[in-house]
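=== How it folds ===
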Amino acid sequence: MDMELLSAISDMMDQKISGIDRKISDMDQKISDMDQKISDMDQRISDMDQRISDMDQKFDEKLKNTENMILDELGRTRSILEDRIDRMQNNIDEMNQYYRITKLENDNTILILRLVDGLSKRVEELEMKTA
């Protein structure tokens, strides 16, 4: 009977060890599955990081292009405005020149009228003396 008992205990121990081995094997499989899920998540995060990096580069490039377009437009606008200012300055210079010429002509006309008036008086005086 001792042998039977030992055999029964041995069988039970084998069954327990076999059950523990299965549980350990299941745990190893679950850990392996978790490792795979973590690895997949790491890959997804890496992919997202790459997409974000690509988006940042595209954004920076578009921002740079927009900045260059704005600077080009500012330069073009400045050039146009400078041309307009130059034309206006030329017009003002012409108007000042016209004003000076007109003033000189008016001054000359006044002088001529005074001379004519003076000559008219002298002619009248001469006519009175000769009459």
About this structure: The two ends are 189 Å apart (CA to CA). The chain has a mean pLDDT of 94. The chain has one helix and no strands.
